[in-house]
Structures are given as structure tokens and as C-alpha cells.
Write a structure and sequence with these properties.
Blueprint: H1 5-8, E1 11-16, H2 20-32, E2 38-44, H3 56-61, H4 75-80, E3 83-87, E4 89-95, E5 100-105, E6 111-115, E7 118-121, E8 125-127, E9 140-142, H5 146-158, E10 163-167, H6 171-182, E11 186-190, H7 202-214, E12 218-220, E13 225-230, E14 236-241, E15 245-247, E16 250-253, E17 257-259, H8 262-266, E18 291-293, E19 300-301, E20 308-309, H9 314-328, E21 342-346, E22 349-355, H10 358-363, E23 368-376, E24 387-395, E25 401-408, H11 416-424, H12 429-432, H13 449-463
Parallel strand pairs: 1-2, 1-7, 2-3, 7-18, 9-16, 10-11, 10-16, 11-12
Antiparallel strand pairs: 4-5, 5-6, 8-17, 13-14, 14-15, 19-20, 21-22, 22-25, 23-24, 24-25
């Protein structure tokens, strides 16, 4: 008999983390087993549960008018379904041998141990905060949680100056640059890479660079931040690189995130090369029958390269939670892996990618051909047709699709889903040319841009 079964005969499922993966797991387990069979205890150190972190830049920018629209399910709704949800409570230790976790109430400081029969680790990610002078000064913000978003909005409301610097030019960086433009700030983006959006190849990132400058954003590439300078009152006043200083009344850190796995590491659980937890197809932590992990704290299999990858996205976190909850609730489900699809925007520019970049393919030992085509989102003669650039990678000899990147205006971004399906089905570019896609002049040219790229890639593979 387990430690927690001795109380009333029920199994206890403990969940660490109350956002997408954790609460999806708890909710799915509850659907399969009622409160009389399974007790569920969930710990969340913040004030909110089940919210869209991906929506925070749009809330800050004003497209989403209020915070509560980002919350899919409130703590009260979870509790009404028989989940013992404990907010403002941080798990500080996992005792794997003793099957228990130690938690601290953040407001009172009280600590206690909670036994478990089954454990879900959904601790998410933590923003990369540079270990630099001034990084913790007032006016410097990360954007990871709803609390972070509220803190940034509060600062925006009381900041008199209108100069903002965003450090980093990945998804968070470009989305926050847009949000700050909406607030009337002069925005400078300082980026250590050759071009913005390192999830794209540099030639496609250059298109994003040009478009951002066209929106009035100052792009500073190949620049390493060395320190954040502060005013006599302690607030941030500038961002410094080796070559220059960029005045700032406000700084947003968009450098990215790392898996929050300090708890798991201390407990001796297996971590991968990127620092994320390693799981099997059922999302069980490898070597541990009754511990699962999902969301931004795990590594996933890339189905194109066959290598483990760190991909912190809400789409995966929700799927992980469904799989974990099904298995923890006595059912069976698996998560096979990802192809690496992501989409973003900065103002009216849409940015999308799936599969492998050139450097990913080289790292995996693949040889490939690339093609880049320029087309439009609709028939060229139809009003509103907007330019679009599509880059495609195909494996040499076999013609297997390896990756697609798209940069364009309205109607460009979601076209990446065609490629995502083709990658999952392991299609060749030759096979893609025969795809029966929807056509009418308001929606696409008679040859969709993705199919034009596939046709050119197929011709290049054949010519080889």
C-alpha cells in the first residue's frame, strides 16, 4: 500500500505547475477518474492558472483588451471539478524515493510535505535573464507570466519617456517590439545574431529585418549587451554594448527561455543536452514509472532530424497534458514528437517556419537542396494580393521535404501548416506538387506559393 492510499484508499496525483501542461493533465485525469477514485493536488506558485502566455504580448500591446481573456480556466473552475489547487505555493523539493514533495506557501512561509502515488512535473520555463550589471534594475522586464505582463503594463502607464530597448529578436522580442510601438514608444531591438528571428535561416531573417525597419523599429544586429546602465534613482537609463549605448526609459528582455528543471535536477531525474527532462512516448520520465513531465520543462523528439530538441510552445504543452492525464488516469496515449512548426507576426508581417533550417539539417548529417520563391497571397490581379517569400529545403537524392520558411503579409503565416502536414507524412517535394489545395482568386494564386516552391525543389532534386 502506498503512503497516500493509507489515508482513505484513494490514489493521489500531485501536479507541480498550474498552467497549460499541468492543468491539462489534471483535468484529463479527472475526466477519467472521479474524486472518489483519484485525489488530485496541484501546486502553482503564481496567482493564475491555465492561461495563454503566448497572448501576453497582444494583451500588453492592446489587441487583447483585458487580462482575463487570456485565462482559459480559473482556479475556482478547477476546484469545482474536484482538483485541490493551491496557489502561491512553490514546490521546493521532490523526494523520489519517499514519493513526496515539499512545498512552501509564499505568503506565509509555511512548509509541508505532500505524499504522492503519481507525480506530474510541469514546471515550465524561466526567462533567460543576463548576468549583467543593472539587469535587475527597475524598468527592466521579462515577459513570461501574467504577473510579468501586469508589471510591464504598470511600468508603461507611469513611464514618461518614450524610448524602449528590446534585448533579443526571437519570437518574444519581435512581438514585444510591436506591442511597444502600439504604446507610442521609439523602439530599438538589440540582437546578438546576424539577423532577427534565429529560428529562420539568415537570408529569411533579413526579410524580417527590413520589414521591422520599415515599421520604424531600429535594428542593431551582431551586438552583445555588456551592461544595463542606471540613473541616480536606480532605474534603467540605457543598454550598453561594446560599441554603443542605447538610451532607454524601459527595457524588455526577449532573449528566450530555458527549461525550469532545477527541482528535477536536484531530484536526480534525467535531463537532456538542452537541460529539459527526458521522457518516453507516454511522457513518463525515463526510468520512473509513476512520474510524468510535460510542457516547457521537457525535450521532445524532432520527427524530421530524429534528434531531441527543446521547443517551448503552448501547443505542445496542451498536448503533453492530454497525454499525461490520459495515462495517469488509467488510459493510454502517446506523444510521438514534433516537426518544429511556429508562426509569429510583427505588425502586418507574418513569419512562419516548420522542419529544419540549413544548420539543423547539416547538424543532423543531411544533404539538401534549397529553393526560394517569391509569390503573392492571392491571385495577382485580385485586390489585396500581398507579397510572400517561401524557402524550402529538400533532401538530396530522396527529395524528402526537410523544412519550409515563409515571410510575408496577410495570408502568409498559416500556409506553413501545409508543410507541417507534409513533414509529418514524410512526403517528398515531388508528392507535394500534386496536393489538392483549395483555390479561388481571393485565397491564392492558381499555383499556391508552397506548391511553386515544391515544384522548383523537385526539379532541383531531379537535376541532381
Amino acid at each position: 500500500m502506498s503512503m497516500s492510499e493509507g489515508r482513505d484508499g484513494r490514489e493521489r496525483l500531485v501536479v507541480i505547475g498550474g498552467d497549460a501542461a499541468g492543468m491539462s493533465a489534471a483535468s484529463q485525469a479527472r475526466r477519467l477518474k472521479g474524486p472518489g477514485e483519484l485525489e488530485i493536488v496541484a501546486f502553482e506558485r503564481g496567482h493564475f492558472t491555465s492561461y495563454s502566455a503566448c497572448g501576453i504580448p497582444y494583451w500588453v500591446g492592446g489587441e487583447v483588451p483585458e487580462r482575463d481573456r487570456l485565462i482559459a480556466r480559473t482556479p475556482e473552475e478547477h476546484r469545482s471539478r474536484g482538483i485541490d489547487l493551491r496557489l502561491r505555493t512553490e514546490v521546493t523539493e521532490i523526494d523520489v524515493a519517499g514519493q513526496r514533495v515539499r512545498a512552501r506557501e509564499l505568503d506565509s512561509g509555511a512548509e509541508s510535505w505532500t505524499p504522492y502515488d503519481k507525480l506530474v512535473i510541469a514546471t515550465g520555463a524561466r526567462p533567460v535573464r543576463p548576468d549583467l550589471p543593472g539587469a535587475d534594475a527597475p524598468g527592466v522586464h521579462g515577459v513570461q507570466t501574467l504577473d510579468d505582463g501586469q508589471a510591464l503594463l504598470d511600468t508603461l502607464a507611469r513611464t514618461r519617456g518614450r524610448r524602449a530597448v528590446v534585448v533579443g529578436a526571437g519570437y518574444i522580442g519581435v512581438e514585444m517590439a510591436e506591442a511597444l510601438i502600439h504604446h507610442g514608444f521609439e523602439v530599438t531591438v538589440v540582437n546578438r545574431g546576424r539577423e532577427p528571428m534565429s529560428t529562420l535561416d539568415p537570408d529569411m531573417g533579413r526579410l524580417v529585418h527590413r520589414a521591422m525597419e520599415g515599421l520604424g523599429i531600429t535594428m542593431v544586429n551582431d551586438a552583445e549587451v555588456t551592461k544595463l546602465l542606471t540613473a541616480p534613482d536606480g532605474r534603467v537609463r540605457a543598454v550598453a554594448t561594446e560599441d554603443a549605448e542605447y538610451p532607454a526609459d524601459l527595457v524588455v528582455l526577449g532573449i528566450g527561455v530555458r527549461p525550469a528543471t532545477a527541482l528535477a535536477r536536484a531530484a536526480g531525474l534525467p535531463l537532456g543536452a538542452h537541460g529539459g527532462l527526458l521522457t518516453d512516448l507516454a511522457m513518463r520520465v525515463r526510468g520512473h514509472e509513476d512520474i510524468w513531465a510535460g510542457g516547457d520543462c521537457v525535450e521532445v523528439l524532432n520527427l524530421v532530424s530524429g534528434q531531441e530538441q527543446y521547443v517551448p510552445l503552448g501547443t505542445h504543452a496542451n498536448k503533453h497534458g492530454q497525454v499525461i492525464g490520459t495515462n495517469a488516469g488509467g488510459g493510454y496515449a502517446t506523444f510521438p514528437g514534433v516537426v518544429g512548426t511556429a508562426v509569429s507576426k510583427v505588425c502586418d508581417l507574418e513569419i512562419a517556419r516548420t522542419g529544419l533550417r540549413e544548420k539543423d539539417a547539416l547538424r543532423a548529417g543531411l544533404r539538401f537542396e534549397t529553393v526560394t520563391v517569391e509569390s503573392t497571397s492571392r491571385a495577382g490581379y485580385y485586390p489585396g494580393a500581398a507579397p510572400m517569400t517561401v524557402k524550402m529545403l529538400a533532401e538530396r537524392r530522396t527529395g524528402r521535404l526537410l523544412g519550409v520558411q515563409i515571410v510575408g503579409r496577410e495570408g502568409a503565416g498559416k500556409r506553413v501548416d501545409i508543410a507541417a502536414v507534409a513533414l509529418t507524412a514524410q512526403m517528398t517535394v515531388e508528392q507535394m506538387t500534386a496536393l489538392d489545395l483549395g483555390y479561388a482568386p481571393p485565397f491564392s494564386p492558381v499555383w499556391d506559393p508552397v506548391l511553386v516552391a515544391a515544384r522548383k525543389a523537385a526539379a532541383k532534386v531531379r537535376a541532381r
